[in-house]
Specification:
There is one protein chain. By secondary structure, the protein is α/β, with parallel strands linked by helices. Helices cover 36% and strands 25% of the residues. It has helices at residues 14-24, 50-58, 61-66, 89-92, 104-114, 161-167, 235-245, 253-260, 289-292, 301-318, 323-342, 344-352, 357-369, 376-391, and strands at 5-9, 28-33, 44-47, 73-77, 83-88, 100-103, 120-123, 127-133, 136-141, 146-149, 151-154, 174-186, 195-201, 204-210, 217-224, 267-274, 280-281, 284-286. Strands 5-4-13-14-15-12-16 form a 7-stranded mixed β-sheet, with helices on both faces. The protein has a 6-stranded mixed β-sheet with strand order 7-2-1-11-18-17, sandwiched between helices. Strands 8-9-10 form a 3-stranded antiparallel β-sheet. Helix 1 runs parallel beside helix 10. The model has no long low-confidence stretch (mean pLDDT 92). GO terms for molecular function: FAD binding.
C-alpha cells in the first residue's frame, strides 16, 4: 500500500473521523491541531441520513444518542418576552425520529476517544509550510519541526490554512451568504430546561437555549451583513461588531451581550460556503468545511464532515493508497452530495433571519396557527422531506465489505 502516512490538519469533526477510518484501513494517520486539546462546548448540531450510517459503522451511534440534547420545545417571543408561538423542538429543527442532536463538543470528544491509541495527535501546533518532494510532502510546523508524510489532508474549516497554502487566497473559494453568526456560553438566567427561546427582529435574530445535563445556556445571534473585514482571531473586535449589529434590539439581548464579554468560547464568523473546482492538488486534499462548507444555515456541516471522512478514507483504501485515483473517486462520489446539502442554506436563511417587521408578524402568526390549519401536517412533511432528501443523497459503499 502506498502513502501509508497521512497528516491531517484539524481536530474538529472531519479530522478525527478521517483519522479513525484511515487507521481502520491500515494507514498511519497523524492529526495536528492548533488548540491545546480537543475543543469542548460549541453549539448543538444534527446528525442525519447517511451520516448516521457512518456513526453506526464507527460503533458510535448509541453513544451519540446517549449524549442527545433532549430538547423539548422551541418558543418565539416578542420584544417584551411575550410568547408568540411554541413548537415541538424536533419540528422546530426539521428533525425526524432517527436524527440525533447533540453538542458539537460531545461528538468531537466521542470521535477523539474512539481513536485513542491508534492515532497520533500533535496539539498546540499547526502547519507552517508544505513542500512537495519525490518522497512525499515535506511539512514544516509552526513549532519548527519538519516531517515528511505521504499525503496531507486539510480538515481545518472554513478558513482552512491548508487550503490557502495549496490553492492560494481564500477569497475566490468562499461565498458569503449575506449574514454573520455568533455563539457563546451564557448563564442560564432564564432558567431554561431543554428549551430554546428565539426573538426575531428585522434583519436580526437572537436566541438562547439550554440542553439536557447543562446548567448554563448557549446564546446565538444571526444578522444580515455585507462582507465585513475582520481578524478571525481578534475576538474583542468581533464582540464589538456583534454589539453594533444588535444595538437597540430588546428582549434579553442586552443581558446576553453583556455575558459575551467574558465568554471563554465566543465564536463569530460569516455565514459562508466553500465552492471549489477541485478539492485536491498533488498529494494534498481537503475534507469537510475546508472543501465544501455548507454553512451553519444548512444544518448539514457535521453530517458532510462525517460522510466526507468516511468516503475519502474508503477510496484511499480501495486504491491501495494511490492518491491520484482515490482523490478523483472521492470527489466524484462526494460532490453531488455536498452540492445538494449546500442548496439548503438559502431557503433556510429566509426563515432564520427575517428582513422586515411585516415578515416577522406574518411568519410568527403562521407558526402559531400551524396546528389549526388544514393540511399543515403535509406542509411540514414537505419541509422535512427536503432536508432528509439532501441528507440521504449519496450511496455509501461498504468499503470493508469490498476488501478495502
Amino acid at each position: 500500500m502506498r502513502n501509508t502516512t497521512v497528516l491531517i490538519s484539524g481536530a474538529g469533526i472531519a479530522g478525527p473521523a478521517l483519522a479513525y477510518w484511515l487507521a481502520r484501513h491500515g494507514f498511519t494517520p497523524t492529526v495536528v491541531e492548533r488548540a491545546e486539546t480537543v475543543r469542548e462546548g460549541g453549539y448543538k448540531i444534527d446528525v442525519r441520513g447517511a451520516a448516521l450510517t457512518v456513526l453506526d459503522r464507527m460503533g458510535l451511534r448509541e453513544a451519540a444518542e446517549a449524549a442527545t440534547t433532549d430538547m423539548r420545545t422551541g418558543t418565539i417571543v416578542d420584544a417584551k418576552g411575550k410568547t408568540i408561538a411554541v413548537m415541538d423542538a424536533d419540528l422546530f429543527g426539521g428533525r425526524d425520529n432517527d436524527d440525533v442532536e447533540l453538542m458539537r463538543g460531545d461528538l468531537a470528544r466521542l470521535i477523539h476517544d474512539a481513536t485513542a491509541g491508534t492515532v497520533e495527535y500533535l496539539f498546540g501546533d499547526s502547519i507552517h509550510n508544505l513542500k512537495d518532494t519525490p518522497g512525499g510532502v515535506e511539512v514544516t510546523f509552526d513549532s519548527g519541526n519538519t516531517r515528511t508524510f505521504g499525503l496531507v489532508v486539510g480538515a481545518d474549516g472554513l478558513h482552512s490554512h491548508t487550503r490557502r497554502l495549496t490553492f492560494g487566497d481564500e477569497t475566490p473559494h468562499i461565498r458569503h451568504l449575506g449574514h454573520h453568526i455568533a455563539i457563546h456560553t451564557t448563564p442560564n438566567h432564564l432558567g431554561l430546561d431543554r428549551r430554546e427561546v428565539t426573538h426575531p427582529a428585522p434583519g436580526r435574530t437572537a436566541l438562547v437555549y439550554s440542553t439536557a445535563g447543562n446548567t448554563d445556556a448557549k446564546a446565538m445571534y444571526l444578522f444580515t451583513s455585507p462582507t465585513t473585514p475582520y481578524d478571525h482571531r481578534d475576538t474583542d473586535h468581533q464582540k464589538r461588531l456583534l454589539a453594533e449589529a444588535f444595538d437597540g434590539v430588546a428582549w434579553e439581548v442586552p443581558t446576553l451581550l453583556d455575558s459575551a464579554a467574558d465568554a471563554p468560547d465566543f465564536y463569530f464568523d460569516s455565514i459562508s460556503q466553500v465552492h471549489m473546482d477541485t478539492w485536491s492538488h498533488g498529494r494534498v486534499t481537503l475534507v469537510g468545511d475546508a472543501a465544501y462548507c455548507p454553512s451553519p444555515a444548512s444544518g448539514q456541516g457535521t453530517s458532510l464532515s462525517l460522510v466526507g471522512a468516511y468516503v475519502l478514507a474508503g477510496e484511499l483504501a480501495a486504491a491501495d493508497g494511490d492518491h491520484t485515483p482515490a482523490f478523483a473517486a472521492y470527489e466524484r462520489r462526494m460532490r453531488p452530495f455536498a452540492e445538494a446539502n449546500q442548496a439548503l442554506a438559502a431557503s433556510n436563511l429566509k426563515g432564520m433571519v427575517m428582513g422586515s417587521a411585516a415578515q416577522i408578524w406574518f411568519q410568527t402568526r403562521m407558526l402559531r396557527l400551524m396546528p389549526h390549519i388544514p393540511g399543515s401536517t403535509k406542509m411540514i412533511a414537505r419541509i422535512v422531506e427536503k432536508i432528509h432528501g439532501a441528507a440521504n443523497a449519496i450511496d455509501l459503499p461498504d468499503y470493508a465489505a469490498t476488501g478495502a
